[in-house]
Each structure stands twice: as structure tokens, then as C-alpha cells.
Amino acid sequence: MYLAPHTLSLITTYRCTAACDHCCFGCSPREQRSVPPRQLREHIEQAREFASIRVVVFTGGECFLLGRDLDELVKAAAGAGFVTRFVSNGYWATSREAARRRIERLTRGGLREANFSTGEQHARFVPPEYVRHGAIAAAEMGLPSLVVIDSFGTSRFDFEAFVSDPEFRRRVDEGSIVLKVSPWMRFGGERRISYTRRCVKELNVHRLQGCATVLKVVGITPKDEVILCCGLTVEEIPEMKAGTLRGRTIKEVLAEAPDDFMKIWIHLQGPDAVVRYAQSLDPTLVLPRQLGHSCEVCRFVYGNPRIRDLIKREPPRNMPQIISQYIHSLVLQPNLTMPQINLRPAHAPLSQVREIHRGTLLRPAAAPSPEPCRQQLVEQAA
Question: Of all helices (H) and strands (E), which one includes residue 91?
């Protein structure tokens, strides 16, 4: 399949300091599967074969469990000309000073962006103030900093306590820290996850856009698999796996990946467009009301044999135009500069983010008590 991805996402490990209910990869401190640092360096080197790849992301699991190897990998990726980013739960940012020291080492190696995750589930294992420390420290060093708060109807995450720090609020309002609310997805955990009507309505509007990650983000997993999206639902959508790296390079795996019009369609118009077309052929096809995240709709599309059969039997009449649009975008992309490729979410003032978060909740509730972090894991990241 002809691809021009802009991002290489290295899922460095399934090991994590947290064990969130409904984690997409089932990460936990007990999970040991990781990509050896030597192989991660090879993946970074192979990414240079793609003129379109501009960004290398280190994620997991918890990528900071790599310790000093993370510093060296960031340095290698930056030295190869890539924009570098991490995604972390911030467990290592136990104080403002500890966060500064850790991020300073990474920025010296060429780190360019910092992403943090928090929410009810993360807060059981990592105090939210750690995320605040990390985001502020990153912003102080000039790094664009994104904090994603996962939410759902009965979430007990204390938003007001999280944003109570004056310095944090100031940086959110000025845009050096971008605060985003995202629906927490269901992955067979024990906690009942549901969304408010207001949240679902707003997400339905958001999902009218195409998917920014499918075919544009290439991921490598600890299973040596190459995946073709952000990876949230990849364990439940076999079609998002391009193949294994055993004895092959990333470029070879992608070159041998089968063509898939559905991925192109989802990339350009989103998974809801696929569902709407299938419903035009079969009005009895019903999209569950409680699907919030676009990845949930994608999972529904690929997991529904009826949808696949309908589209295979009667492809949309504008299929040639959709394919042409995709090919046209691939021809133009190598000429784009980094500022022209929108890889970062838009900034919103704190008041707007507060209102979005409030709209995801059925009722206010007390925040969960944090579970103790494992000290040896914190020390490993230092």
C-alpha cells in the first residue's frame, strides 16, 4: 500500500506504573513486554527512509521506564532530524524541581514536545499534581505541552483541584500548555463507562472530520508489529496491523501491506462516513448511541461483517474521487514544512475546557484516592 506517514510512534513498552481499568493495551507494572533500546534505535534509523516522516513519538505503557535509554533515544531521533515527543503519565514529576531536572536532560538531547495523560483512572496511580509539575516544567523550557484529561459520565476526577495552581492556569490561558478533554474508551474493564447526551452530541460533530492518524501514524509495538494508526483499538482491529518486523524493515512491511480503501475513506472522511453510507444501503443498520470516541466507531465498522459486505458488494460511487484525493495528498505532502502539517490540537482557554469537561459528567463526585506509586519505578526514571 502506498503510504506517506508523518509520524513514527514507538510504543516502547507495555510496562507502566499504572494499571488503568480499560487500558487499551492492558498495561501494568506486571507487564514486561518491551522493545529493546537497540531495536528502537534501528526503528529510528529506518524512519529516515521515509521523506514524509517528521515526528518520532516515544510512548507506551510508560516510556520513562526506559530511564537514561530514553535520553539517548531522544538524542538519536533529534540527531536524525526528527521532531521528538513523549507521552507520559508524569509519575516521575514528583515535584516541580524533579520535573525540571528530568525534562532538562531530555531537552538537551533535542526533545521538542511533551504530552501528558491524566483523568480518573490515571489519578488512582499518579497524583494529578505530578502531571501539573511536568507540564509547567516543559512549558518553562519552551516545549509545547499537551495535557489530555480522560473523562466519562461518572468520572470522579477533580478538575477544579487539578487546575487550581495559578501558574498552571496562566499557562493554559496563554497557550503554552494545551488542555484537552477526551472520552475514556471501553476495553473490557470492570468500570462501567458511559457518556452524557451532551458529550455524545459534541463528539458526533467532532467525528465529521477525517481521522488524522490512520495511514499517517505508523506505530511499532513490543510485539514487533507495525500498525497503521494511533493504536488505541489496534488489538481489536486486525486490519490495522500491517505485519511483523521479524527479518524485515518498516519500509518493507508497509510496501507489502494490502491496499485497503476503507482506511483511505476513514482517513479522509472519518468512520462515521462509512457507517452513513452502509446505512443508506441497509437502513436496519444501527450505530450504537453510546459510541463517543472516533476509534470506537472505527472498531464498530471493522467489527461488523455486514458493513464490510455491503461496501464490498456496492462500493460508493465516489470511490475513485476519494482515492484520487488521497493520492493527491501524498504527492503534495513531501513539499510541506512542519508548520503546515497540523500535528497539535488547537489551544482553548481554561474556561472553555472547564465547560467541555463539565459537559462530560452526569453529576459531580468525590475524587478517587490515589494508589501508592512503586518507588523503584520512580527511581528508574530519574
Answer: none
Assigned C-alpha cell, 164: 487550581
Of 110-119, 212-221, 327-336, 357-366, the poorest mean pLDDT is in 327-336
Quick check: helix, strand or coil at residue 358?
Answer: helix
pTM for the whole thing? 0.91
118 closest CA partner among 81, 157, 145? 157
pLDDT digits (tens, 9 = 90+) for 58-116: 999 999 999 999 999 999 999 999 999 999 999 999 999 999 999 999 999 999 999 99
Alpha-carbon distance values, 210 to 272, 320, 363, 380 (Å): 9, 17, 32, 39
| Domain 7-256+341-369 architecture | Alpha-Beta Barrel (3.20)
Classified as helix, coil or strand, 164 is: coil
Q: Using alpha carbons only, give the angle 80, 81, 83 rounded to the nearest 5 degrees.
A: 120
- Rounded distance, CA 179 to CA 171, Å? 10
Looking at the chain, how many residues does it have?
Answer: 382
What DSSP state is assigned to residue 146?
A: E
Residue extents of the structural domains in the chain: 7-256+341-369
